[in-house]
Amino acid sequence: MNQSSWGAPPGAGQWGPPDQGPASALRGAAPPASAGPVPHEGDMAQTRPMPIVPGPGGHQDDHRDHRGAARRSGPLFRDEKPQEPMSTSFPGPDSSQDSEKPKKKSAGRNLRAAIGVGVGLGVIIIASLFVYKPVFIGVIAIAVVVGLWELTSRLAERKDIQVPLVPLAVGGTAMVVAGYVRGTEGAWVAMALTALAVLVWRMTEAPENYLRDVTAGVFAAFYVPFLATFVALMLAAEADGPQRVLTFLLLTVVSDTGAYAVGWRFGKHKLAPRISPGKTREGLVGAVLFAMVAGALCMEFLIKNGVWWQGLLLGLTVAASATLGDLGESMIKRDLGIKDMGTLLPGHGGIMDRLDSLLPTAPVVWLLFVIFVGSG
C-alpha cells in the first residue's frame, strides 16, 4: 500500500521567490533596451551557490533559469515531493505578502477520493467476508485477474515484455480456489501447472525473447496469484477464518496508516531514498508501533485461543513485510518508469498499488497463525 507522504512536508529545499531587493522599484516595468548581453544559462548554473547582484536585465534571465530548473527537477513518482514552478513574470505589488504566507502541508494525493474508494472497498470486503465465504474467494480472484492485467500491460508498454495473460488469469484463479479447497498442496500444484501453461502458450509465437517473456510470466504468477492464495488459506480455517483474514487486512492497513501519519508529521530521515524518497525512518517506527498495538488487540479479541503478546510479534512482522512489499513494488515501478500500475482506483492508482503491501504480508501472517494457534 504505497503511501505518498511518509516523509517530511513538501516545500523544503525548493527554490524561493526571486530576490526583491534592489529590483523592487522595477515592478511591472520592462527591462531597458540598453541591457547588457544575456548571460549564458550554464554560467549561471555554475555560480548559483554564490549571491547574485541583479542587474538591469538580470531578473528575466534568473527567472528563465529557475523555470528550466523547475522543469528538470519535476517529480516522476507519486511518493516524491513536487516542487512549485517559479513565476515567469516580474513580482507584482502583493508578491512580498504572498511569499510570507505559511505553506500548508500537502498529503501528495487526493485524500477525499482515496478515503471514499477505501471505504467502498472496505464495505465490499467485509460484506463478502462474513456473509458467505465463497463470495470472498470470488473477490480475491477478481483482484488477482485485474492485478495481473495491470502488471502485464505495464511490462508490455514499458519493456516490450509479452507475457501471456490468458494462462495467468486462468491459472491464478485456479490457485486461489485450489488453496481454499485443497490447502497448500492444491496451491502448489496449481502454481506448477500455471507456470507450465505459460511456457506452452508462449510457444505459439516467435522464439525471439522467449526466455525473457516466460521468466516474466512465472514471476507474475508467483507475485500476484500465488501470494494471494495465502489469504484463501487463512479463510479456510473453520474456527475463525474470517477473523484471521480481517486481522490480516486490519494490521496491514494500520501499519500503512501509522507510517503515513507519523512520517508526514515527523519524518526527516529517509528510509530508502533511491527506491522511495517519500518514506522515512520515523514513518517505519510509526508503522511498527501502530501495527503492534493493533495486533495485540486483534489476537486478544478476534482470534480463537490468541494471546496479546502473540499480537505484538504479529504486528512487528506485518510492519516489516508490508514495508518491504511497498518498497519492492516501488522498485518495479521505478524500473518501468511509471508512477502507478493503473488508474482504476481514484486517489490510489491501480489494484496493484493497493496489493503491494498485502501480497507479501499474506504468507507471513498465515504462517504465524499456524505457529501460534494452528491451521484451524
TrEMBL record:
<feature type="transmembrane region" description="Helical">
    <location>
        <begin position="111"/>
        <end position="129"/>
    </location>
</feature>
<keyword id="KW-0548">Nucleotidyltransferase</keyword>
<keyword id="KW-1133">Transmembrane helix</keyword>
<comment type="similarity">
    <text>Belongs to the CDS family.</text>
</comment>
<keyword id="KW-0444">Lipid biosynthesis</keyword>
<feature type="transmembrane region" description="Helical">
    <location>
        <begin position="163"/>
        <end position="181"/>
    </location>
</feature>
<feature type="transmembrane region" description="Helical">
    <location>
        <begin position="283"/>
        <end position="302"/>
    </location>
</feature>
<dbReference type="InterPro" id="IPR000374">
    <property type="entry name" value="PC_trans"/>
</dbReference>
<feature type="region of interest" description="Disordered">
    <location>
        <begin position="1"/>
        <end position="108"/>
    </location>
</feature>
<feature type="transmembrane region" description="Helical">
    <location>
        <begin position="135"/>
        <end position="151"/>
    </location>
</feature>
<keyword id="KW-1003">Cell membrane</keyword>
<feature type="transmembrane region" description="Helical">
    <location>
        <begin position="187"/>
        <end position="204"/>
    </location>
</feature>
<keyword id="KW-0472">Membrane</keyword>
<feature type="compositionally biased region" description="Basic and acidic residues">
    <location>
        <begin position="59"/>
        <end position="68"/>
    </location>
</feature>
<keyword id="KW-0443">Lipid metabolism</keyword>
<feature type="transmembrane region" description="Helical">
    <location>
        <begin position="243"/>
        <end position="262"/>
    </location>
</feature>
<dbReference type="GO" id="GO:0004605">
    <property type="term" value="F:phosphatidate cytidylyltransferase activity"/>
</dbReference>
<feature type="transmembrane region" description="Helical">
    <location>
        <begin position="358"/>
        <end position="375"/>
    </location>
</feature>
<keyword id="KW-0594">Phospholipid biosynthesis</keyword>
<keyword id="KW-0812">Transmembrane</keyword>
<keyword id="KW-1208">Phospholipid metabolism</keyword>
<comment type="pathway">
    <text>Lipid metabolism.</text>
</comment>
<dbReference type="Pfam" id="PF01148">
    <property type="entry name" value="CTP_transf_1"/>
</dbReference>
<feature type="compositionally biased region" description="Low complexity">
    <location>
        <begin position="1"/>
        <end position="39"/>
    </location>
</feature>
<feature type="transmembrane region" description="Helical">
    <location>
        <begin position="216"/>
        <end position="237"/>
    </location>
</feature>
<comment type="pathway">
    <text>Phospholipid metabolism; CDP-diacylglycerol biosynthesis; CDP-diacylglycerol from sn-glycerol 3-phosphate: step 3/3.</text>
</comment>
<protein>
    <recommendedName>
        <fullName>Phosphatidate cytidylyltransferase</fullName>
        <ecNumber>2.7.7.41</ecNumber>
    </recommendedName>
</protein>
<keyword id="KW-0808">Transferase</keyword>
<feature type="compositionally biased region" description="Polar residues">
    <location>
        <begin position="85"/>
        <end position="96"/>
    </location>
</feature>
